[in-house]
Write a structure and sequence with these properties.
single chain, about 170 residues, alpha+beta, Aminopeptidase, eight-stranded mixed β-sheet, about 30% strand
């Protein structure tokens, strides 16, 4: 299902057909470094990840991470979307790109459209961004979106320390 589109992108829900793309995306070195190793090593793992981590959120939360694809060609280049985590009060916006598409404004374009969807379709009034404090590029993107540093949090499952950025919508 299509969620939104921008001048260059279309955001849609993931389907099991996206397994090969997810396998590539979640194994990007930057994904492992800044987001985490999801244990996705083969296509079957990617299919399970799509069902249990992506599609399940559409059912449970009415939103989630969406497939970011180039308009026209339909080439998948990343993911962007919304997630409600138990550890945070606010829904957060997240994004990840395949390396060849970094630095071209796609993540900002998708995230800005996602914030509009968050406000207009889901009625959210505040948004968060969760970021590794060492990920300067993502911090700059969150700040361009109008989010500002709020506080640090330690994930209870693995002890990772992350920075939380927030803004009113």
């Amino acid at each position: 299902m299509q969620i939104t589109e921008t001048g260059r992108l279309v955001l849609t829900e993931f389907t099991p057909d996206d397994a090969a793309f997810i396998l590539d995306l979640v194994n990007e070195p930057a994904f492992h470094k800044y987001i985490g190793d999801r244990g996705v090593r083969i296509r079957a793992d990617a299919e399970r990840y799509i069902e249990e981590r992506l599609i399940a959120r559409y059912r449970d939360q009415s939103f989630g991470f969406w497939r970011m694809a180039l308009k026209g060609a339909g080439t998948p280049i990343g993911m962007c979307g919304l997630v409600k985590r138990d550890i945070l009060d606010d829904v957060d916006v997240g994004f990840a790109l395949l390396k060849p598409y970094e630095g071209q404004g796609y993540a900002f374009e998708a995230a800005a459209a996602t914030l509009t969807v968050a406000r207009e379709r889901f009625g959210l009034t505040r948004i968060a961004g969760v970021v590794d404090p060492a990920n300067a590029r993502s911090i700059r993107l969150l700040e361009r979106l109008g989010l500002s540093f709020s506080h640090n949090v330690t994930w209870p499952d693995d002890g990772t320390r992350v920075a939380i950025y927030t803004r009113e919508l």
